[in-house]
Amino acid sequence: MIEAILNRRNMMHAYRQVVSNKGAAGVDGMNVKELYQHLRNNREQLESDIRQGNYLPQAILGVEIPKSNGKKRLLGIPTVIDRLLQQAVGQVLAVRFEVEFEDQSYGFRPNRNAQQAVLKAQEYINSGFQNIVDIDLKSFFDEVDHSILLQLIYRKVKCPLTMRLIRKWLRSPILIDGKLRKRRKGVPQGSPLSPLLSNIMLHELDKELKRQNLRFVRYADDFSIYLKTKSTARRVGNDIFRFLRDKLKLPINREKSGIRRPVNFKVLGYGFVPTYRKGEKGKYQLVASDKSWKNLKYKLKVITRKTTPMRFDERIQKLGEVSRGWLNYFRLASLQVKLKDIDGWIRNRLRYCIWSGSCRIKARFWEQLLPWNACENEGTKRCLPITRKLPHPAVAGNRRIRDPRFECPVDI
Predict the structure, then answer these.
(1) Other C-beta atoms lying within 10 Å of the C-beta of residue 317
(2) Which InterPro entries match (predicted)?
(3) Mean pLDDT of 278-286
(4) Is 258 left (phi over 0), alpha (psi -120 to 50) or beta?
(5) How crowded is the C-beta side of 259, counted as CA atoms within 13 Å?
(6) Are 381 and 410 within 8 A, CB to CB?
(7) What does the pLDDT look like over 172-221, one tens digit per residue?
(8) Domain ranges in the chain?
(9) Which CATH number among 2.60.40.1260, 3.60.10.10, 2.60.120.10, 3.30.70.270 corresponds to the domain 2-274?
(10) Which of 184, 270, 185, 265 is nearest to 227 (CA)?
């Protein structure tokens, strides 16, 4: 397998993928722009180290980013070289594992997306399976057991060099605030190999659900089970809880887990509301969740904030980019009513941006003439207020109002 990983075509595809993803530099400071020249100078030595089992991955750079709930998520950024090799390994492993993954798994897989997962959930609900076991895995990527994961990979990968590489990546220390921390469990988010490893781990859950002939939808670590009765849902929920705890050693967030009805259930940002169209009694249609609307409104609010230094055409461009991306993701939902409210709200904020800009200039340079807005006679000349519609020379923004060079004769 190691020869398939180091194959020139596979490595070139991995290189293009890493460069297109861009991303920040790791602990060595090398960015993707420097990768090509580094490979030209060190490619043979790199391949030799891998074939001999002497390659040592560098530490992972830990970066904390804020979450919507106020907490922080730890991202792990490998070096560019490690990202390249992980991408190359992932491309070869995916071919072997992809054929075994279940149809109900939609996350991080080719030709599958979140919208397909949402539609499958809606299909189950509208078929009468309206008691939903919603299980939230607590910090899944940080809790993956290395020994269990390596055993699952070894079932398909017998190459000792490849297994050694994966084991080294899993055990690589993480650098946080200048301090190295050892890792005995977890898969770093931000690594090219992490999505595939998460699917390999949770494929065991998929097989257990399939064995019990259950209807379920899984997108990465977000999964839900659909049943007809509440008693059955309670029994299945307890069984799956024990399976995750005992077999996969994955903790569950009890506060966020439970049995839901469609109106109280959210999946990948979508919600469900009853439809009252004729002949569709008991059916549910898709809507964007309140949290999704709140996130959209916050992004639009930042762009249309008058204190944000931005030209008007730039605001319009950024509004279009954010709106198109959001609408493309929620294209399955019924949005018309709320979109009208959002449209009016945005227009008002844009008007305020324009008005506040002009008012700010007036207040700064013409404060002496307000609020009476009257002309002042000074001999044969007078100063013109800003609001008088009379021809007058343009005044530079840094000039004083009483600069004699910008005073006009009284007979204009």
Answers:
(1) 13
(2) DNA/RNA_pol_sf, Group_II_RT_mat, GrpII_Intron_Splice-Mob/Def, Mat_intron_G2, Rev_trsase/Diguanyl_cyclase, Reverse_transcriptase_msDNA, RT_dom
(3) 85
(4) left
(5) 16
(6) yes
(7) 999 988 888 888 888 988 889 999 999 999 999 999 999 999 999 999 99
(8) 2-274, 289-365, 371-412
(9) 3.30.70.270
(10) 265
